[in-house]
């Protein structure tokens, strides 16, 4: 238990004499205080869980927030997807990436196109699993790669799932840039696209992130119905209309998302993903 580990850290003063860094242990304890039952907490609640002084907890929280690992909303604190940066090599063999990988490989085999899973980190998407069938972008995509959410199909799915107030707060901070020939030009155009995503349950992006790149995405949800990620199929843009793209890939994407959700639930990995996100 985290409370027991903190007590051990507080009581073992002799460790300060050696190589044990108590401040690092306390900072990690603050991060570990969050779990599936404590996704958002006030400063006082974190202090109670960890057994640390409020002033100590405050310093760690504001340091973590400055580094992007903690999100502040009023009096409440929560972890951000950036904590994934601390353990991508470990995550690649665990939980969502492990469960999703086989399904993404199957989807790539069915579509003969590249498939990916991403989560939202503030204004960006972060890739946590991917199967590449061919090079379709000028930049390579690996686990940990980031792209602006507003210009990607997975980003649109993830942004559309946010509560209205949180979405509007992020919209104010988006710096719209022309990344491809069809990139959305501003907040009003993006709002219209997100409304369509909410209504249809999927997103299609046609040459907005890069010239010649088209993708379609659907949400990945936990047992409570919360969107925790998105999966997509990305391909080179061709002569086929968008309606044909939806007809070709959307049913397979939905089947794949449902299969991943079932496997996550049965392996009890969903709670771990919710905790780190």
Description:
This protein folds into 2 domains: 2-79, Orthogonal Bundle (Arc Repressor Mutant, subunit A); 85-276, GAF domain (Beta-Lactamase, 2-Layer Sandwich). It is globular and about 65 Å long. A hairpin with a 6-residue loop joins strand 7 and strand 8 (213-221). It contains 11 helices and 9 strands. Helix 3 (43-50) crosses helix 4 (54-67), helix 6 (95-111) runs antiparallel to helix 10 (242-266) and helix 7 packs across helix 9. The chain is an alpha+beta fold and 277 residues long.
Helix/strand order: HHEHHEEHHEEEHHHEEEHH
- Per CATH, the class of the largest domain reads Alpha Beta
Number of helices: 11
* Order of adjacent strands in the largest pleated sheet: 6-5-4-9-8-7
CATH topology of the largest domain: Beta-Lactamase
End-to-end distance, in Å?
Answer: 20 Å
Low-confidence segments: 1-16, 269-277
Number of β-strand runs: 9
Describe the secondary structure blueprint for this structure.
Blueprint: H1 2-11, H2 22-32, E1 41-42, H3 43-50, H4 54-67, E2 70-73, E3 76-79, H5 88-91, H6 95-111, E4 114-121, E5 124-131, E6 146-148, H7 153-160, H8 164-171, H9 187-200, E7 203-206, E8 213-221, E9 227-236, H10 242-266, H11 270-276
Antiparallel strand pairs: 1-3, 2-3, 4-5, 4-9, 5-6, 7-8, 8-9
Structural key phrases:
277 residues, alpha+beta, Arc Repressor Mutant, subunit A, six-stranded antiparallel sheet, three-stranded antiparallel sheet, globular, disordered N terminus, disordered C terminus
